[in-house]
Amino acid sequence: MRLPGPLGDFYRNGGNEQLYDVPVITGDLIIDAGGYEGEWTQGMVTRYGCRSELFEPVPTFAANCQRLFARNSWIRVHCYALGGLSRTAIFSLASTGTSEFLPNATEEAFEVLVIDVAEFLKSLGDQPVACFKLNIEGGEYEVLERLLDIHQMHRFKSLLIQFHQQPPGWEKRREAIIERLWATHDQIWCYPMVWEKWVKR
After folding, report:
1. Which residues are 78's β-sheet partners?
2. b (16+ CB within 10 A) / e for 54-85
3. Is-cis flag, bond preceding 167, omega within 30?
4. DSSP letter string over 90-142?
5. What are 68-107's pLDDT values in tens digits?
6. Is 138 part of any domain?
């Protein structure tokens, strides 16, 4: 069965393999926000010999990543979420779609520590980030807005972003973010609401 639209285009053009074609070299730092089972981080570290800061707020997924990378000092697993401000939030469990922004919380809702992305960047000192992968089920809007507002987008050599159709108002926020990203980055390819790749000029 042929998938229609941008999702089909994404897979016809190489699918997830495209997510590894980024400007990263040995020793570089990447950030994997929405690490899930650690596949992207594992692939990146294997290919490039880079270092990864992986964020995964779902306890079972985070624990699996911690076990997987327990002996790899190049990978740090953080069992919390990145956001636009530090807070405690309630996430609803929905496998790969687990999010703070699902319309109806379930009995499987759980508490998550959200850390201000600006505070985390500060902890890195002046370290540039070769690639920032964002797949955080609606949280990408506040993270990108925060980085743009504090004028830190220049620190990211490349971005892999999966935008989502949540929370309410996402359409205008996405348009505004993209308009602002053009000031520092070029959009290399875009499969709308699937994945898009940006590289610093």
Report:
1. 55
2. bbbbbeebbebbbebbeeeeebebbbbbbbbe
3. yes
4. EEB--GGG-BS--SS--TT-EEEEEEEHHHHHHHTTT--BSEEEE--TTTHHH
5. 999 999 999 999 999 999 999 887 776 555 556 665 555 5
6. yes
* CATH number of the domain enclosing 173: 3.40.50.150
Mean of pLDDT values over 55-67: 93
Of 58-72, 96-110, 145-159, 175-189, which gets the smallest average pLDDT? 96-110
104 lies in which domain range? 26-200
In angstroms, the CA 103 to CA 87 distance is 19
Q: How many domains does the chain have?
A: 1
Helix (H/G/I), strand (E/B), else coil: 68: helix
Q: What digits encode the pLDDT tens for the residues 107-118? A: 577 788 999 999
Q: Is residue 68 part of a domain?
A: yes
pLDDT value at position 77?
98
> pTM (2 decimals)?
0.91
**Residue 170 has which token pair?**
């996402």
